[in-house]
Amino acid sequence: MRFSEEFDEIKSWIPYTMDGRPHHEKMAATVVETGTDVNFGSLTEQMAEYATKQLGVKVEYGVHVKRVHRNPAGSWLVETQTRGAAVQHRADILFVGAGGGAFPILKKSHLPFARRFTGFPVGGRFLQAEITEEQARQYRAKTYGKAEVGAPPMSVPHLDLRVADGRHYLLFGPFASFKPVLEKGRGFIDYLKAMRLHDIPGLLSVAIEHFALVKYLVSETFKGEKSMLESLEKFAPGLSSRFDWKPIEAGQRVQIIKDGDLQMGTEIIVSKDKTYGTILGASPGASVSPEVMLRALEQLFPAVFAGESARSKLKEMFPEDNLDTLISNPERYREIRDAVNSALGIQSEIPA
Question: Could you list the residue range(s) of the whole structural domain that residue 132 is in?
Answer without folding.
Answer: 114-265
